[in-house]
Specification:
The complex is a heterodimer of chains A (340) and B (177). Chain A folds into two domains: 122 residues, no CATH class; 132 residues, no CATH class. In chain A, strands 2-3-4-1-5-7-9 form a seven-stranded mixed beta sheet, with no helix packed on it. By secondary structure, chain A is an alpha/beta fold. Chain A contains twelve helices and 13 strands. Helix content of chain A is 31%, strand content 21%. Chain B has a three-stranded mixed beta sheet. The longest helix of chain B has 15 residues. In chain B, 32% of the residues are buried. The chains are: A alpha/beta (340), B mainly alpha (177). At the A-B interface, helix 1, helix 2, helix 3 and strand 4 of A face strand 2, helix 3, helix 6, helix 7 and helix 8 of B. Chain B: Pathway: Protein modification; protein ubiquitination.
Chain lengths: 340, 177
């Protein structure tokens, strides 16, 4: 389309200085209104937090509207109170990225099912606040606090309105020092999350504790230590057959073990045969598993499917307690695999 | 046909089919308000749009005048409904059509023209053009360093070194995700 002179050219003449200001204004990216900038930010995916570093204007917009912007899904977030240490635990194979800052160490691990983020160091410090760390994160499975103080400050941070805990399957406080004055903060937290997802260290039985309780002969003979990695399917069945064996509220086999998915399935079936009433109220089992093949991932999926459907549907009602039909899954398998 | 005038001195005017120009909600509303006047003889001045930008706008609306109308959805800032159905709340994926990819001024030396086009599309309320422009800029800055984004968007670092260090700590977790 060829441009043509306007009919009322003289009426629309603009002062050059005014025009320069107008032109400068209208060509600037930041002159766009907030709702348009938000449209840009909503498509920046995992780069969104970085956009806050560009300038104060971006920071204020993203912070003010964080709840309207897409969040980054993290499957598991662990906050560890102890000082950052280098090195990874043995027997664990991950694809991971590490970033060390002045106060913290961040490890990002990528599994087939999603990302895990581990933060070490000074979670209660004000540099920066935990609530700012969590502003753009949507945790889809586990939020885990380890070796730190559970105090009013931490609970206040967790109950900030922009923190989304709606999809958290388990909120785990492990080896935390519980401050006596946290009742009010806990009440606020309970108003925000389903109480069934809360777990405290006192209720937790982990792999080393199981070993200490049920394989004491190994513990008393240092020459015959039973490393968690040696814990196998036969041990699980042996455990079930012990008369005094009871499941604590949370049983975690979270270390790298030799227990197979089929062993977990047999364990569940044996337990149900032994205890027709099913699992005690609030029982949670968590099997951490480093898969050695893709087939194990499929087996784990099948096992989780059995837990979600076969054990909790109407046909199995005579076998399991009502707890298993609770919408909150009581049995949970974390199966990890790295293609090496 | 409708005449649109740029903010240049002297102004430059473009003659555009009414159907095409009505892709601009701003101009469509104006034409509806002035129903009864002979708008074909009255140029519409656009004080926020210069001639090169207006030429791009005219080219785009003429190309898209026969497109089906976009589905109306509230913008992010206005969307305060408490509809909990996540599927309904999700914005449809914006895909930049091939013609538009060639149309957008995407060379680095043309970036100021792109920003002027975005401002004009916003002023004239041409949502589909604004969407593809925003999507293009979002794709362009995603994954880039902060310094690169500042340079691309012509922005100054207005943080103190202390503030910047604190912010880097705040977002450190997101690096590499």
């Amino acid at each position: 389309m060829a441009p043509m002179a306007p009919l009322n050219a003289s009426k629309t003449a603009i002062n050059p200085q005014e025009k320069e200001e107008k032109t400068s204004y209208s060509r600037s990216f930041t002159s766009l209104p907030v709702d348009v900038l938000l449209r840009v930010f909503q498509w920046t995916d995992s780069s969104l937090p970085r956009m806050k570093l560009v300038c104060r204007h971006f920071y204020n917009i993203i912070k003010e509207h964080s709840q309207a912007l897409p969040m980054i899904a993290i499957e598991r977030l662990s906050i560890n109170g102890f000082k950052p240490q280098h090195g990874l635990p043995p027997n664990m194979l991950y694809f991971w990225i590490e970033k060390v800052t002045q106060d913290r160490r961040f490890q990002k691990k990528t599994f087939l099912s999603g990302h895990a983020l581990i933060v070490d160091g000074q979670a209660n410090s004000d540099r920066p606040k935990l609530s700012e760390l969590l502003r753009h994160i949507k945790i889809t499975r586990l939020l885990h606090f380890h070796q730190m103080a559970l105090n009013e400050s931490l609970l206040t941070e967790l109950t900030q309105p922009w923190i989304d805990l709606s999809d958290v399957f388990m909120l785990d406080f492990y080896f935390v020092e519980r401050d006596a004055s946290v009742e009010n903060g806990l009440r606020q937290l309970l108003a925000k999350v389903n109480p069934n997802i809360l777990n405290f260290a006192a209720n937790c039985r982990t792999t080393p504790e199981l070993v200490a309780d049920y394989f004491p002969e190994h513990m008393s003979h240092p020459s015959l230590p039973i490393d968690p990695v040696e814990l196998n399917d036969a041990h699980l069945i042996w455990l079930i057959n012990q008369r005094d064996y009871t499941l604590k509220n949370l049983t975690m086999l979270s270390d790298s073990t030799s227990i197979s998915i089929h062993g977990i399935i047999d364990f569940i079936h044996c337990w149900l045969r032994k205890n027709p009433d099913g699992f005690e109220k609030m029982t949670k089992l968590c099997f951490g598993k480093i898969a050695s093949s893709r087939q194990e991932i499929h087996d784990a999926t099948d096992c989780q499917h059995m837990i979600d459907t076969d054990l909790s549907d109407e046909h199995a009602a005579e076998l399991v307690s009502a707890n298993l039909r609770d919408p909150t899954r009581l049995l949970h398998i974390v199966c990890r695999y790295q293609d090496v | 046909m409708i005449q649109l005038c740029s903010n240049d001195d002297p102004p430059v005017s473009f003659t555009v089919p009414r159907k095409a120009v009505e892709l601009s909600k701003t101009i469509k509303t104006m034409l509806e308000d002035l129903e009864g006047f002979d708008m074909e003889q009255t140029p519409i001045p656009l004080p926020n749009v210069d001639a090169p930008t207006l030429e791009l706008i005219v080219k785009w609306v003429e190309q898209h005048q026969d497109d089906p109308p976009p589905v109306e959805k509230p913008r992010v800032e206005d969307d305060d409904s408490d509809d909990s159905d996540a599927d309904d709340d999700q914005e449809p994926e914006v895909v930049i059509p091939e013609w538009d990819k060639k149309f957008l001024p995407t060379d680095d030396e043309q970036k100021n023209q792109l920003f002027k086009l975005l401002n004009a599309a916003n002023y004239l309320e041409i949502k589909p053009l604004l969407d593809i422009g925003c999507k293009y800029v979002a794709d362009k800055i995603s994954g880039q360093t902060v310094e690169w984004v500042r340079d691309y968007l012509n922005m100054e670092n207005d943080y103190t070194p202390e503030e910047e260090a604190k912010l880097k700590e705040e977002i450190a977790w997101a690096e590499g995700l």
